Structures are given as C-alpha cells and as structure tokens.
Amino acid sequence: xxxxxxxxxxxxxxxxxxxxxxxxxxxxxxxxxxxxxxxxxxxxxxxxxxxxxxxxxxxxxxxxxxxxxxxxxxxxxxxxxxxxxxxxxxxxxxxxxxxxxxxxxxxxxxxxxxxxxxxxxxxxxxxxxxxxxxxxxxxxxxxxxxxxxxxxxxxxxxxxxxxxxxxxxxxxxxxxxxxxxxxxxxxxxxxxxxxxxxxxxxxxxxxxxxxxxxxxxxxxxxxxxxxxxxxxxxxxxxxxxxxxxxxxxxxxxxxxxxxxxxxxxxxxxxxxxxxxxxxxxxxxxxxxxxxxxxxxxxxxxxxxxxxxxxxxxxxxxxxxxxxxxxxxxxxxxxxxxxxxxxxxxxxxxxxxxxxxxxxxxxxxxxxxxxxxxxxxxxxxxxxxxxxxxxxxxxxxxxxxxxxxxxxxxxxx
Length: 412
Known about the structure:
The protein is an alpha/beta fold. Helix content is 33%, strand content 19%. α5 crosses α8.
C-alpha cells in the first residue's frame, strides 16, 4: 500500500483540552542540540551553565546562544532537580513518543515481547501532558498522535507479525554450504568470485560426500551464489520498507517543535548498501529535534537465556551471522539516543529510555556558517565538569526547518 508523506493535522487538539498546555522554546534560526550530561555513576548532572559546555561544529567552537534544562520529573520533591534549578529548567514541558514497530525485522516472539513492553510503558510511564503515536504497517495508527492511553493500547494490539521476517531469511546462512555473515552474502551477490570460491572450497572440505553428491565444487559455488542472491534481494526490500517508514515519521515530526522521541523496535536490518542514506536520515532527524532509541526485540541472546528461541536448536537465533545492529547504531548515535540490548523485559527497556528522555539540556547556537546548504555537519560537545560525559547528536543536516506548529496529529 502506497502512503503519502505524513502531514500534520489538528485532530488531537480536540483531545488536548484537558491536558496541560505544552511549553515550547524553539527558534528555527538556531540549531538546537539536546544533551544528556552524566556523572561517573550514570546520574544526570543538573545545574550546568553555558560556560560548562563547549560546542564544536565541524571542529570549530561555536557561541552558545540558548541554554536551559528541561525536566519532566513532575513528582520530584522540593530541593530536587526541578525545584532546585527552576530558574533554568523548563519543568513539565510536553513529551512526545512515537512507538515504531519494525514488523519485517521482528520474529513473532520478539514482536510479542516488545508489544508487551510497549503496553507496560503506556500504562505506567505515559503521563498527563504526554503525546504519542503507534507506527505500524507503514503508517501511524489512526493517522495521528494522541494523548489517549486507550487509543495507544489499541494501536499496540493492532500490530501483527509480518509474513516474512529477518530471522527466517538469516536461518539458511548456517546450513551447509555456509555463509559467514551478511557482508559475505553481499559480496557474493555482487559477483565477488574469490569469496564464492573460498566458501565453496571450505564447504567441500567440511563435507566431501555432500559436495560430491551435489555435483562437485562448481555446483556448490552455484548454491552459495543462489543463497546469497536470494537473501540480499529480500533483505534489501525489507530494509527499504524500514527506511521509508523512518522517513515518513521524521518528515511528519519535523513540524512539531521541541524534542521528539522515536522508539524503534527491531532486530536490525540489512545496511550494506544504505549506510549513506541512513546517515543522512539521522542527520535530518537530528536537525528536527528527533532522538531515536532502539530496543532489540530478541531480548537476552545468549545460552543462559530462558527464552526458548535461543535454547532450542531448531528455533535458535542467527546472531553470529547477523550484522544488522549497524543500522540502529547509525540512527541512535547520530541522533543522541542509544540501543537497548540483552534485556528480556521490554518494559524495563522502555524505562531506561523514558528516564533518559525526561531530563536534558537544550543548547542552541547560530552556526558560524549560516548558509543552510543541506550538507551534513559534525557536532561535538565537551564539558569541563570533572568526570562527566556528554551524550548528544553527532551531526545534523544544514537545512531550514518547516514552520513549527504545536499540533500533534498525522494524516495519510
């Protein structure tokens, strides 16, 4: 089904009458960077001032023109972060979450795991003033964002497994004649005869009788080529669907001011020929104030896991051959988020993300190079606070923002 780019609409304004009025501090002339500053113990460092941060664009220091802290810790007692630093904190500003289910890259058990976690997030962590949406099957559920928990839960329940998923495509890699990983498969599919020959020779050395029975080395090389081409062809289609979905979400959220959180639930995807596209997507999302987090739907992927999918051989996951983490890594690191791996309890994974997105600094600056030329520019933040570290987006696309509207809705 072909969908148009997501556009904003005013549907949710009708629902927002009972919610606190969102607070926005946005200037389209500035480049804004959301920064999380943590101490050695991983705790947020409050009370910083502009002189505590140095911001570099393409290696050159920039003058900070906007600096304030945002906190959503509405339950904090007097003396805690939001009251102690109220002079610089935008306390209680809205939060916006898009829960993005990457169905083609989630096996059935993974999908059930993240659906349960997402439902727990909505029930227990989604609070008054928050807005959210569920992205599934190529579009936003009901075409909009909402503050209604019941609608979000209904959207989560509506998510269904894809007909074909990534793990099913990867499973033949471990079957004789083996292919070691996606990189090898891509090389074979692109005609790297030396890689094909090496894999064929190894297969015949490992199982001479099967090699002879299949017709010898030449026949085995043909089998390897067919396996690689089938995988790469299908993986490219699935990865393209995921990238198109990410583009739709990013384009739709670009008009909404403030920080937007996208939680991508996936097992990773094929990126061998789309790295540049992913990097540009992350840079454009960063420019629009979108932070992407990723939850690995596989949960705890080692031999000690209680999950049957990793202890029963005929359902065992292909992880040795899987390089799909590269895609989520590019997106999360590029936008200032992070990946959550090896956690069976997906609700706990959501909790880590909610904590991270609830208190942060917004740093705005006018670049020395004021020309919005569309190119990707590198960003680096450093702090002079001993032992502290800064996590923020690593780049942005030098593009003008669309008109900013405090409207939380999408339409197809």
